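Exercise: predict the structure of this protein bound to pyridoxal-5'-phosphate.
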Amino acid sequence: LLAIPANPKKKLHLLQNAPGLNPKTITPISQHGLLHFLQSIALKSPNEPFYIFDLAGVAALFDHWSQSLPTVRPFYAVKCNPNQAILAAMAALGSNFDCASRAEIQSVLALGVSPDRIIFANPCKPESHIEFAAAVGVNLTTFDSVNEIEKIRRCHPKSALLIRIKPSDDGGARCPLGNKYGALPEEISPLLEAAKSAELPVVGVSFHIGSGATETGAYSAAIAAARGVFETAVRLGLPPMNVLNIGGGFTAGPQFEEAAVTVNSALKEYFPAELNITLMAEPGRFFAESAFTLAVNIIGKRVRGDLREYWINDGIYGSMNCILYDHATVACRPLALKSNRKNPTCGGGRMYDATVFGPTCDALDTVLTGQQLPDLEVGDWLVFPKMGAYTAAAGSNFNGFSTAAIETYVVYSEEGNGTVLD
Ligand code: PLP
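Solution:
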């Protein structure tokens, strides 16, 4: 890992000079000023939704990772949020990258990141994407089927492989992955033998306990199982493995501390330092979630007795697809820049039962029900903190409302907690 300057000014300087970030568009602000900044954008924007991305938030999380899991190299999972600003920041901070496709590899390489800082961590890849990885020198990938070994042998015979195993426990993950990916215990030996016959080096093991995991014990069980696979490889006469990839599943906050303690102790037990194993992980949510705040405009209102119904210009088919695909719950705060300029955060005022709809003509496009919100007007704003993970990344342009068109404003907040109005 790079030594990241502790001094905020030096850190800002590092990020301002990062390829892919335009120093002129990074606004340094004090924490108190974040709300002010958000308001100033909302007032001058043509009422379109926008994101605020806090570079200081992501830099603080990077520090945090380096302190809590110092031996584990992070490969940021681009799929979680491929926004150019977070990719550029992660590259400048010294992160490596987990890419799932040709396009993700291209966007990371475009920042000047060398291909040996990328893992193509998709166990089932289109052949054309494998050929692309071969052409640009991305030489580490994952697999969990014989068919994938054959594709890699044909399209990228110089690639090294990690065998992805299915963890026995999904850690209570919000998005378990084990029903789709990971070799079962009885499949491991045949897969290792197939790779050996194909003359492809299996250099290590990877797993993912599932995204949004809550029970950290799942890491211990998976790390222990990975050790078993290292031993199986030796028994089968393969060259000794030397890479362990513990995947993602981390969420920033107290649960990360708990996960780090569990991971460190399992690593100490099953992969002690003297084995000289390269340890890596593929965190996505950990870095992206809290660094992005979304502001949306109220474009419609209906009053039904005491119920207030609002339409906003982003929804389930856009950033809030996380409610469906990521099983997320979202929360919002009012910013009444039109109806209540003197007290835009509406503290202390009367609240109403409210429903918030997205902009498309589908009733499924309902973002929130049973919310307590003030009596807002068309033109007021709702602010959604912690909207960086699996939001814009999976949005569509259904009904012509394009998530890809949402502007991101990059700031560097003094406190670096990333989240406006939290
Ligand atoms: N690596 C792989 C292979 C994944 O499929 C995912 C998420 O689906 C991630 C990493 C990132 O996981 P998380 O956001 O939970 O850290």
